[in-house]
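Hi everyone,

Forwarding the result from last night's run.
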Amino acid sequence: MLFVEYGQVDVKDGAFVVIDKTGIRTHIPVGSVACIMLEPGTRVSHAAIKLAAQVGTLLVWVGEAGVRVYASGQPGGARADRLLYQASLALDDTLRLKVVRKMYEFRFGEEPPQRRSVEQLRGIEGARVKKLYQLLAQRHGVTWQGRHYDPKDWNKGDIANQCLSAATACLYGITEAAILAAGYAPAVGFIHTGKPLSFVYDIADLFKFDTVVPVAFKIAARSPSKPDKEVRRACRDIFRETRLLKKIIPSIEEVLSSGGIEPPKAPEESVPPAIPNPESIGDEGHRSGG
């Protein structure tokens, strides 16, 4: 994946390039890039979008460091193999439970209780999350009355809830970008269901208390006048420092693999890279450079 900011993305002399304000071109091997994140200050030509679509490279228009997702091009690079894999796991009750149990283990570092349904595990998880909120509030000296907010009225929430809402929105943005880039469906969830971003909530929860929630409480303790802006900037910085985007997709693969079924292979007719990797001149058993 690549992030591009403050430049014109275009096709010049047959090459996919980013042109900065001084006119310097930087070539991007678009055929071997899974996803290009277009940050603020980026302009994209029709020719560039067309070439990215032809080679199956996803374009995602995001905020700084992916703290918001505004729009996306062709999710999954014109392939449905991972989407079908995800749906197969979600539609089978036994496989879905295996995935949910793995998510619980990933999140809390221990195996969940045996002989529990998805609904029961959801309840156990909710109780543990409430306790984590209380502990973090105490640690940072923040008055905490519970997670209460009105999506339609930002000002109804107290300072802690405003910070948490802003922080989780940032995490949902970068998580959705990763899910789209990997070719999965944001709506096909396992713990969360029935919402356009159910799978986004599932995966974001795996990282929430290690990343954005502590940031939210830390900022809430200072009672800033514009908490949402401070939280977004802090989340942007922590995403870059921890290289979170690179961790999300392997984590998705890990939790889905717990279902125990083989992911389908990419179909032969799937879109190939426009710029294939050079063939190795080394014999079998020898490593080539690359």
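The CA atoms of residues 38 and 61 lie 5 Å apart.

Cheers,
N.
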